[in-house]
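Researcher: Here's the sequence for the chain we discussed earlier.
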Amino acid sequence: MTLLDFQTALGRLVRAPDGSDPLRSLRLTDHERTRLDSLIRSAGYRFTVEVQRSWCVGRATSAGYLTLSILPTDLRTRLLDEWTNSGGGTSSFFAAEAETLLDFIAAHIPNPSHELTVCRLEQATLRANEGVATFIAPDPVELDRSPCLLGRGRHAGIANFHGEPHPVVSALLAHKPLPPVSSIAEVTVLFAPGLDHLCRPASAAEADLWQALTGLLELTELLRRGHHREDVAAMLQCGALEYANDPCAP
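Model: Thanks. This is the structure I predict for it:
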């Protein structure tokens, strides 16, 4: 076995979920496999696994702290276990870890719920904060170019509150239980790096425009669907939308 294969084997063994065979794709002799099997039963190996797992859980907890803090203990533990077993918690890039972790959590909690609202709130806040230092409002003249492809801003997001946001935010700040989900009209909050305080309530037209842009669309198609140029321009100016040909866009 080469040194690289040995390092690869050790790395896979440390990160392997229970019940998997991380060595199946490696060409090992019977003797090498026996030595590795003996290694994973050693106290040193078990200690290394526990330390690695602790680091991964710690990174994940920091990346989704607000959302994880309001989930029931059993659900929080289950989600962290699933996340780390799938390879989560290893990224050294906090923003990337938080983005993917919060998407993962969002797929496992009820919709509608205040927990999902808080998950999207935390995700959108992190995005806007990441982009605020480098954000430059795009040139509106690009709207007149053809084709003009548009997409959601990398550093933007929305959170849908089921009722007035204030009771939910107040409960979060006071570390109190969240109020019951309200049956009154939904309130959508827009987050973007070019907004004062990074957020504000979104109009119904802005919320519809955001929902329409699940992928890239031409301005002419958006206008054909009934969206308004003024709303597109306003969302571009605050970073909620981006030109697809922007070199900084995804």
